[in-house]
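REQUEST ID: PR-0412
SUBMITTED BY: lab tech R.K.
PRIORITY: routine
TASK: structure prediction, single protein chain
INPUT:
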Amino acid sequence: MLRLKYLIKRFLYTIKNDGVVLAFKKIYKTIFYSNKINLDKLKLDKYLSLDDLFLIFGTDKGSLDGKKTYYLLRNKKQGKKQFKNYYEWINRDNPRNFEYQLGLNHTPYYEKHFAPLRNKQLKVLEIGVANGHSIASWYYYFPNSIIHAVDIKKSYKFFYKANRIFYHSLDCTNNKDVTRFITKNKNFDIIVEDANYLQQRTANNIKNFYPTLNPGGIYILEDFKWADEELEALSKYNDAHGGKMMTEFSITMHKIFELIKKKEIFKHEVLKKSDLNYLFDTTEKVEVYYSQHPGSSMGLLFKKS
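STATUS: complete
OUTPUT:
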């Protein structure tokens, strides 16, 4: 039923913008999964920087957010549209000759730790990929690696296909489904989590997926700053006005990273003492980064070799 609603919505949208004939062609391709962008057939410069790849494919992880510009141009009601679909947008000439909203700019931190790994044969997992623009970026940045993509969305909403990409529709709050996924696909070298910034789910993902990381691997949590700032603001307000925070998760992710780094036990609703001891025993170092973007944050856990 959800897929039918999605197809109807896309069909009406395409009729409005591209006409009836093209609308039927697109729906046919969507039904048979042949409308996905084939990354194996794109001809991109293999020496492109990670920031260039983020911009071309349109993820907000880079210094500029290419996706928002595409949808703004796509939805203009007046004038001829420059790009009929996302494939044309990816292949645009001179990608930096457009106006863009600033991105989260995680690139310098990723480059710092990923550059030495770029040409290695790795197994990479990203949790929370939406339509897959960051996955497409990882595909080109890591030319010899297998890329796994996890999201709660069904596969027909994932834009891309390639021989080295494997998409999994998975609800990470369902521990039974997560266990089945891990049993089948465990042992990753890099895990990037960009899923949901609620601490309960973030902590649950660390608990479930960090043990699947190979020795010497890296676990990255993105964009927890918004939730941390909200929690800190609410705590200060209640302290100042005689209230009491009525929440299970009263500790920020930033503080959690600090305590893991110090190997100090703390009370947490998801990360129990056994989970913390595992993190303490297997983690070599912890790093946290913030860019100038108001929502940007990255926490990195480096597993011992």
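NOTES: The chain has a mean pLDDT of 90.
REVIEWED BY: pending
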